[in-house]
Amino acid sequence: MTMTDKELIEQIRKVRLADLSDGMDALGLVNVGSMSTEMRPLRPGIAFAGFAHTVKLVPSQRRIEKPYSTPEEYFEANKAWTQDVYTFSRELREIDVKDKVLVIDQGGYPGGVLGSDNMLGYKYRGMAGAVVDGGCRDSFECNLEEVNVFSSKRTFHHVTFRLSNGGTNIPVQCAGVTVHPGDVVCADDDGVLVIPRARAEEVLKFAIAILEADQKARAAKYEALGMQPDFTLNRLS
């Protein structure tokens, strides 16, 4: 029986990336969907899963014409530039972002299209998280706000004068993985895994069986060692 998106993502969030990766292996999808190990969370403990909303940013051919004399001139130029770059942000305002993961392909360029302001807005609206093959800036503030970001670079740069819009809701290459809109994007301390939506239920079936076997084996060791059970032994409840 085919699961709804809501049912699927609720179940996927109960299992570990290790279980999902083993499930991919069982289906012959070895290393498929495994993002580069350069893709790391802004802090330990970030975990999320959702459906990909894809964005591509490309190196800009435009250049700053002249230095600006006043902050007002700079603000005006920055606003004009970001009207193009943040096309995706305007699109996101028109849809329900709950259970979405923003996946941004910058080709690894260390520009901060994400930061403490826009990520806080996405958190308020219920977005699961963001994955960017490039930079996220304002790292300290992002961590204070407990927003969910994985990035392949750390940076203080903005994208203004550096990157331009290359398309939205299209297949993108993110940290070595082709991501299609609607693919399932999962992240935890081990990294980021992308599961094709059409195979996600099959992967989940194996992942649940693998997790159940793991929990049983570890529960026996907890008991032998006199350790108190914790939530990792009962993830599926």
Provide the descriptors you would attach to this structure in a database record.
two-stranded antiparallel ribbon, 237 residues, 2 domains, elongated, Glucose Oxidase, domain 1, 11 strands, 34% helix
Q: Which residues sit in consecutive blocks of at least 5 with pLDDT less than 50?
A: none
Which structural category fits the helices and strands? Answer: alpha/beta
Shape: elongated
Question: Rg, please?
Answer: 20 Å
Q: What's the structural domain tally? A: 2
Biggest sheet architecture = 9 strands, mixed
List the secondary-structure elements in sequence, H or E.
HHEEHHEEHEHEEEEEEH
Structure notes:
The protein is an alpha/beta fold. The chain folds into two domains: 52 residues, no CATH class; 162 residues, Glucose Oxidase, domain 1. The protein has seven helices and eleven strands. Strands 1, 2, 3, 4, 5, 6, 7, 10 and 11 form a nine-stranded mixed sheet that branches. It has a two-stranded antiparallel ribbon with strand order 8-9. Strand 4, helix 5 and strand 5 form a beta-alpha-beta unit. It starts with a helix and ends in a 12-residue tail after the last helix. 37% of the residues are buried. Its cofactor is Mg(2+); a divalent metal cation. It catalyses: oxaloacetate + H(+) = pyruvate + CO2; 4-hydroxy-4-methyl-2-oxoglutarate = 2 pyruvate.
